[in-house]
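User: Hi! I'm working on a homework problem where we have to compare a predicted structure to a textbook description. Could you give me the structure for the chain below?
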Amino acid sequence: MGFKVRGYDKNVEQEKTRDYSLFAIACEGTEREPEYFRPFSMIDRIKVDIIENRIGKRDSAPKKVLERVQRYIEEVGLSEKDNDTLWCVIDVDNWPRKQIEELAEYCNNFPNWNIIISNPCFEVWLLYHKLKDLKDIDCSKAQKVKEALHKQEKGGYFYLKYLPLLKDAIVNAKANDSHLKSYFPDSKETKVYLLAEALMEKIGEPRFNKFIGEILPTLNPTKSKK
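Assistant: Happy to help. Predicted structure tokens:
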């Protein structure tokens, strides 16, 4: 399935429609992933489109993520000309490997379509914001990783405390990636740093610093859900 020209949003300023970078992100998770990535849309010339917000979410299995992505491309569209990027952010968990491989094969259609996997779950990426490695973390099950994350920060995990540490997370996660050329990470590893690197490349250091110093503090803190 090829690209379809993206329809313009009437609520987007004309100047922004000409030069913003679109990151269309399909998330297996219902809370932490969208909560983490959505604030980047507050940065000038960056638009993060959470596919589940557009299409709806009923199931987190990789094959369901693929179905939502296909619907998004048909109904909303992506622009090859504008170098729109697609990111499927999923967990290993206990999903059949075949489903993950089918999603990876679909993403191979274009160089700017990507499958981003965490093993066993997205919380591995979050832990790397404050840890150089996960050697002392039990990652045998996703629930164990989530419990470790909850204990990492006094009062529990809250995304606004982690976003300023994005660059640290990139360094730490990449340093622990045993298979840089493979899309599938080993246990305690994650490929989310590739999406973070792509965001940083488009954002640039000055705008990221403004995002951290001026934009994030304006968000009203809410209690993060477990």
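For your comparison, note the following. Residues 1-18 have pLDDT under 50 and may be disordered. Residues 62-75 form the longest helix (14 residues). Good luck with the assignment!
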